[in-house]
Task: structure prediction
Amino acid sequence: MKKRMFVWMLSFVFVLSMVSMTLAQQAQPSGPPQIVKDMVAKAKAEINKVPATDVKAAIDKKEKVVILDVRDPNEYAAGHLPGAINVSRGTLEFNIWSKVSDQNAKMYVYCKTAARSALATKTLKDLGYKNAILMDVAFEDWIKAGYPVER
Result:
């Protein structure tokens, strides 16, 4: 009898834990919280934006522009736009000065989804970089378009 009760209780605990795990997974938010989405939308409303075709054209014409990748160094190392320099968004305010000293330089800013880069472009504007422009496209879409990537 004790053995049967133990097996029943063990089974009950197992089923309960499986149900709990399923409910916990369903409760996980998909993507950032609304406040972050609002911050990105606000930043995008306050900055200049261009599509990937404009950035590709500037690269093809060899225009004097800075291509700024604000992803983390490991993301950058996995592949980036031709000639891009990397200053991760987390260190932007501290490190941009040594990478881009000319605050009048035309600068296209991008990241994985155009969210970090929107916030970074707004930060650059606040720091006095007059020509910081968001490439308003996901990096994956750049690749899907068949545009060049350096490693």
About this structure: The helical segments are 2-27, 34-45, 52-60, 73-78, 92-99, 116-126, 139-144.
